[in-house]
Amino acid sequence: xMTVRLYEDPRCPVCKEFATSGGGPVLTGWVLRHKAKVExxxxxxxxxxxxxxxxxKAVHALRAALERGKFAEYHAVLYQNQPAxxxxxxxxARLLQLAGADTSSAEV
Length: 108
Known about the structure:
Layout: E1 2-8, H1 13-20, H2 23-32, E2 36-42, H3 46-50, H4 54-67, H5 71-80, H6 92-99
Parallel strand pairs: 1-2
Helix pairs in contact: 4-5, 4-6
């Protein structure tokens, strides 16, 4: 079984594209068929360049989701609701709101 290492910033539109329509869905299929496992390194590389702390806050929220066994669902919800790159939209209030969103329809 292969290991795929992904480096992501929740605020990054290229990361969103990969996760939602690029290789992400293919990779998910491999994981579900036990052909691959994924190791995520979540980062906040856009915050220093664009200002704000949305990436960092979203990474912390993902860590909390992981601790509750909901990483994949919350990861999908964050990318489905990603603000424009230049907007520091992952506020505490927005992240909590998204955590309470119905994740049953989220792509994993």
